[in-house]
Amino acid sequence: MTEDEREVESPCNRVCTIDLATGYCIGCLRTLDEISRWHAMTNAERAQLVASLPERGKPRTAQGT
Question: Contact 38/8 with Cβ under 8 angstroms?
Answer without folding.
Answer: no
